[in-house]
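Quick one: structure tokens for this chain, please?
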Amino acid sequence: MKIEMKGINKSFGTNQVLKNAGFVLEDGEVHALMGENGAGKSTLMKILTGVYTRDDGTVIVDGEEVVYKSPQEAEKAGIVFIYQEINSLFDMTVEENLFMGKEITKGFGIVDKKAMRAKAQEVMDKMGVSIPVDAVMGELSVGQQQMVEICKALMVDAKVIIMDEPTAALTQSETEGLFEVIESLRKKGVSIVYISHRMEEIFELCDRITILRDGTYIDTKYIKDITMDDVVQMMIGREIGERFPKRDVKIGDEVLRVEGLTKNKVFHDVCFSVRAGEVLGVSGLMGAGRTEIMQSIFGNLSRESGKIFIDGEEVTIKNPRQAIAAGIGFVTEDRKTEGLLLEKSIAENIEIANLKKVSSKGVLNKKKQDEIVKQGIEEFRVKCFGPWHECNNLSGGNQQKVVLAKWIYTDPKILILDEPTRGVDIGAKKEIYDVINQLAAKGVAVIMVSSELPEVLGMSDRIMVVHEGTVTGIIDAADADQAKVMTLATGGSL
């Protein structure tokens, strides 16, 4: 299927998000669509699939102009969109989500549960996913939910599949499995639109790349003809320097020590420490228990045993309120359900974690609130209409920036970052890395959980690797490489 989009304009109120945007997809190619957060990538694809109506421009599919009025209509034509944000019903099972509106029936319209179970298992096996099809979606990790979303798209006989940040919540091995599926689809003539901020993936997987900047078409190039620096220059209109900025910080005394942290069937006898000015990277495969360990330290997940020490003194943390009082900040991996109040504004979200700073005796100090919020928007370059812009209407990357700003202004002693750059463009990643280094320079102890190995290797002083709830090793970043980290992540030893 060949798709051509020309002269696409789209405004929401007075805000024009697409200005003469365009895109051409050829038969059987994997085509990267890149740009900064808020550049209009997802909006352009939502216009193609009937989520939004365009103000101007044409969409031509296999030589004929089309206007899809809904995603269901686009899907019937063979175009499927895997959204960046999970689009499932969390109180239903994996199988029920896979067949939502597409149930297999036998005589008299009776649902054929046996056939559905077999088909669901077939697709899951094809993706190499070991998730029980009767598992409830809400009980799965974010990464597992994303794998189900990808499987859902494979249930349809699609000619074009749009993947918006498909590997954001996946580990290295799961990403490799997805790439194998994409390669097999390409051989069958299926076209893939691949939206991602992960440069290594783009250069490994894609045939061509189209760049959008501020809602405008910039250029389309063959991957073989460009470099990563070329892509960055086209995306943001400036050079960003070193991808992982170097940090010259004197590592101070121990700030956090964890001893024997244990939760039955989740993690066991976890022991580690972090010092002032240190960035401790945390790596491991999906389901290894990385997030659960951090949730337990923050008091958001109970544990059977273990001790937590801050500045050498044991502390009791049974809930997030106690963690915050002890000086711990936590940027969650799930910004949608845990990180933000989506229907509230940027100002209200930042204010929630900083009430002591912006109020006195229970009375909100509007001037202080305005100062902090303005500083957050400027420092993190949040693309918005102002402090009262509702977070639900921000792009995913800009939502992530608000979550970071919210916690950084609490002035934490210890800052836990769980997938801090998920769904964030390369320019914004660099800004986040700079902020991490600035925090370390101020003596903050930083714990950074990440599924991106280059990020862990590039930003950490030491790397803690978790396998099946157990710490299999803590290594100096100077001695680490991807092979060593993956060996520990899969239960091996060095």
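The two ends are 49 Å apart (CA to CA).
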